[in-house]
Structures are given as structure tokens and as C-alpha cells.
Amino acid sequence: MIPKKELITISDTKSKIEKLLMELVLEPRLKALEWSSITKQTPNMKIGYPGQHLASLITGIEGARTGARGDDLRDGTEVKSCSRVDQLDTCGSCKNKVLRIESQCAHCGSEKIKRMDDSKWLFSVKSEQEVKLLTIDIDRVFLTIADYPNFSENDFDTIRFQAFEIWNKTERHKHFTTLMNNYYYKLFLEHIKKNPNKTPAPKNFWPYSYQFYLCNPVKVFSCIVEKANEEPTINIDFLVNPEQDRQELNSELMPISLLSQEEIKLLISISREIVEPQLIDIEYNSFIRKISSEKIDKKFLTKHIPYIDEITRSHFQLRDTDIIVEAKTTYQRR
């Protein structure tokens, strides 16, 4: 998990990142918001290419000059970007689409708006060559995401940018390789056998999901943008040294709320030395007695052990929940 130092050629990355985000993402977004209020078109800015620029600055490694038709970075790193900013929302009454900047449905006037927060990373895994690329050929998968840290509070004026790394050939990140192999060999190929004329959708990799945390993603960048809809200000709260060994970094903590009842009970079998340091305001034996009961209260869990670390997660397995879906049918106007 050591970057190739000889390929790290970009310096002064922090100031460059701030400039890039402002000039390539935030300022154009302000213009898009302005025009969206007039045209009622989505202000959503595609994050693909800006995400690759951001990856180069965070890692200090230039692009491979392939125009998305080869290596994203010179060291072969695969870059995937996801944005949950300015997603189209849905009216809870008539089911028509609603812009994020709108407080009520333009079709029926309802204020019951279902705010969407479900964008994800997509991996094209349609051949053995693509499986091999993601699991054997490259050393690192680089994931960027733009979202709202205060989404549950309907705060759409604060934006967060984060970046994570998965070193797919390491034991630490073995579950990512398993996910890609399972998708291709158990889902994609089986679907093609049954429906050769239907193209399966790409592999979905959901941010902040159980599978995401089990892959032990390592955060390498995080920043908060305040007053993003008017006068954006950027605060970078974490930026890894491009040359640092990622093995020295902790992976993301997983919210305990993601575990099923059966998975929670697995904590009973994990050694006390692992579980006890993560407990808050409760004695270990009392905690074990509580989770040994038939029904486990999630509020109790989130109070006394809100997150579980990588060592604890090593005792859990991937869920068999990968379900293949077909690519969307051809768009038709109403």
C-alpha cells in the first residue's frame, strides 16, 4: 500500500485542490444554480472528469493522457467518482421529479418531497479482462464522492468532498476483489446465459453501505464547503501525504446500525480485548448480556458502541445480497 514515489510529481497539492474545486466545480455550479432557477433544468454537474483532476492532486500523480480510455493515473490507478449533490428529487404525492432547489412540486404543489441521496459508484465488469484489471492488474482503486454531510437535516448549503482508496491486491482489501469476482462470474455471466439479449447493469458499489465498510476503505482526503449555494468557502480537514504508506492509516469506522440482528450477535464470539475498548458508558459483561437477548435495541447499540473498527469487521463476512438488474430500457417520452 505504498504509492510509487517516482511518479509523484505534483507538489503544493493543498492549495491546488482548493483552487481546482473552486474553479472547476463550485463556481460553475453557482452559475448552473442561477440558470436552473430560470430554465428549471437540473443544475447537477457531472463529477467524472473533475474527479480525475482531484485524484491527481490528492495522489500527486499525473493522468496518463488517455482521455478515459486507459489508465486514469500514470501508476494505473482506477478512478471512480460519485456525486449526491443536486440530485433530482421526487414528489411524495404525484411521483413527478422535483429539483433540489425547489421546496414544492411544480406539478401538484405538494410540499411532500422525497429528497434523494442514492448515487453510487459504477464498475463496468463485462469481460474477464475487466475483472482482471480491477482485481489483479492495478494496485489501487481511488473513489471520490461529493455529498451533503447534513443531508438528514435538509441542509443543502453545506457540501462535503471525500476520497478513499482501496488497494485491491492486499489482504486488507480482499473483499473488494471478492465483490468484483462474484458480480462477474456469479451474476453477470449467469444473467447473460438466461437473457443473452439483455445487458446487465454495471456493478453498483454503494457509499456508506455494509459492503463498502467491509472493504476497509482508507480515507485520504476530506473537505467541507460552507455556503456552497452563495459564497463557497473551502475547509480541507484531512489530506494525506501522497508518499505515505496507506497501511499506516486507519480505515473508516462502520456504523453499528448497519449490522443485522444476526451479525450483532456475532459480537458475543469476538474476544473481549477487541470489543471492550469500543464500548461507551457500559461495562463489558452488561453489554454482552444485553445483546444476548432475543431482540436487540438499535438505540441501545448506537449509544454504547456507535461504530466498529477494522479488526472487529474482520470477523464478519460479505452478505449474499448482490442482485443483478438489467440496464434501463430505451427512454420514451410520455
Considering the chains and any ligands shown, give keywords for the structure.
334 residues, five-stranded mixed beta sheet, three-stranded antiparallel beta sheet, 12 strands, globular, disordered C terminus
Total number of helices: 10
What radius of gyration results from the CA coordinates?
A: 22 Å
* Sequence of strands across the biggest β-sheet: 1-6-7-9-10
Low-pLDDT stretches: 329-334
Give the N-terminus to C-terminus distance in angstroms: 51 Å
Give the SSE string: HHEEEEEHEEHEHEEEHHHHEH
Largest sheet: 5 strands, mixed
Which percent bin holds the helix content? Answer: 25-40%
Overall mean confidence score, pLDDT = 90
Describe the structure.
This protein is 31% helix and 16% strand. The protein is of the alpha+beta class. The chain has a domain at 5-84 and 119-252. The strands form 4 sheets. A 5-stranded mixed sheet has the order 1-6-7-9-10, covered by helices on one side. It has a 3-stranded antiparallel sheet with strand order 3-2-4, with no helix packed on it. It has a two-stranded antiparallel ribbon with strand order 5-8. Strand 9 (218-226) and strand 10 form a beta hairpin. Helix 1 (13-39) runs antiparallel to helix 2 (48-59). The radius of gyration is 22 Å and the shape is globular. The protein starts with 12 loop residues before the first helix and ends in a 21-residue tail after the last helix.
